[in-house]
Amino acid sequence: MTELDKRLFDKKVQITCLTLTGIKVSQVLPIIKKYLFKTEHFKPIQHGENGVNIFLNPEVVKEWSSFPTETQKALKDLNLSEANLKSADHTLTYDNFSVEDVLKAILPTDKEGKYLKFHKSEVLFDKVPGCKSVVNKVNMIDNTYRNFKMEVLKGVDDMLTTVKENSCTFKFDFSKVYWNSRLCTEHERIVKMLNPGDVLFDVFAGVGPFALPAAKKKCQVYANDLNPESFDWLVYNAKANKIDDKYFKSFNKDGGDFIKQDMKELLPNLLRDKKNVYIVMNLPALAVEFLSNFVGLLSESAIPETVKPPTVFVYCFAKGEDYNNIAKNLVVDGFGFDASDKIVELFRVRTVSSMKEMMRVKIRLDGDVLSGDVGKKRKLEDGLDVERMGKNKKINNVFKVAGAKSLKLKAKAKAIKNDLKNIKVKTKIKTTEIDKALVLLQDKVRQSPAPVQKPEVSQKSKLPTVNKEQALETQKKSNEAMENLDKMQL
Ligand SMILES: C[S@@+](CC[C@H](N)C(=O)[O-])C[C@H]1O[C@@H](n2cnc3c(N)ncnc32)[C@H](O)[C@@H]1O
Known about the structure:
Monomer. Keywords: Cytoplasm, Methyltransferase, Mitochondrion, Nucleus, S-adenosyl-L-methionine, Transferase, tRNA processing. The chain is of the alpha/beta class. It folds into three domains: 6-96, 2-Layer Sandwich (Alpha-Beta Plaits), CATH 3.30.70; 178-376, Vaccinia Virus protein VP39 (Rossmann fold, 3-Layer(aba) Sandwich); 406-488. Helix content is 42%, strand content 20%. The strands form four sheets. It has a seven-stranded mixed β-sheet, with helices on both faces. It has a four-stranded antiparallel β-sheet with strand order 2-3-1-4, with no helix packed on it. α3 runs antiparallel to α4 (116-127) and α12 packs antiparallel against α14 (468-488). The longest helix is centred in the last third of the chain and has 42 residues, at 406-447. The protein starts with 10 loop residues before the first strand and ends with a helix. S-adenosylmethionine is lined by residues 144-146, 178, 180, 183, 204-206, 209-210, 224-227, 230, 254-255, 282-283.
């Protein structure tokens, strides 16, 4: 049985009906509005031969006495009585049931779950207006570009789709880029906060749900995404929505590079021009890791103290009950110093699953963050605290490292390990070069009948600049560091 038999949904019901003759619907409606029979493809107010029929929910109103006394009185004041209330036979069909009702009716009987996907897709295909295909996610979103593999359950095998959101149209291939219609309200909330002339840096822009409505609003937008497919659709959608080039610039690079290169170059002038600068970072699984890029970003530019600090909206997933504190700690860890006084607002965007909230953290990027002074100062203060409070404080700090900061440290250790690996390889190459050069030199010296002084000088100049002892020392140090890291089991 893979066919959904829609006739099984045909159902005879008795619906209570209040008939009005010579009375306006507008007089009665305020009194009985909450009792109307509401279901799909059914009009609860219909014109009949004997007047206007108002159909009422039979589960609530079966007879006149079902109305509370005040309602009965209000209806009597309009000359309506028990005589106006009747039950009428009606056949409900598949069309009258909502998606939820249909699924509820199917699911309990589908114990094996074998036909579940099929039934769901069939119902959704029928009930969602304009539905072209129904797809099923076959894996979790865990890749860099946040898209997922899908199987087509119903309709055409074509993932090219167009959606409308916040007065823009977005076209994209759903199998290759990230899109989530559940974020529509959040996109709208952010765009509403912006005013024409404001500046928006969208670090993880996707196909443009923040960026394009903002640019349409005449904000100056710099939108970036690493996924080449997203980038192409972002550019396409900007054109399709007739976004003026002067308000919109797109980038296709890693978010960290976008901050360290393009934002670093653009920010000083924007701040001097007293622009309101907003930075949106919607990559909840990873975005906090990019926050450290802001520390000292403008250390080389002279930024007056009076500038308006840029505002960052960074998204993260808080897994646990105390979602505000969890989000705050993620941000602090991301910055690498106690940035709690830079946090302006913690906002719960949506519940992803039980104990997993998507959070938006609003951060003020003050001058001391951009200059890097805050990082230096607070690290110094941490050190003083440790000294002041003696051994116990030190022990506490060790536990802190092993706990909340371990993830970040692990990532850093990984990066250091990679760097050391590179150094090791480079050192090996250099040592081999030096060995070869020395062998050559020795041969030449041996073969040379003349005094060794001159050739020695000329041969020396051919040698790489690092001497062998230095190279061996570097290799020894990197080996030691690698061993230490391995011991830490990071
Ligand atoms: C969760 S989606 C958000 C897209 C869009 N801003 C939205 O609200 O729907 C995150 C986006 O970040 C992009 N991305 C992932 N890693 C990135 C990185 N390192 N640098 C820049 N973009 C990245 C993905 O391709 C994806 O489009």
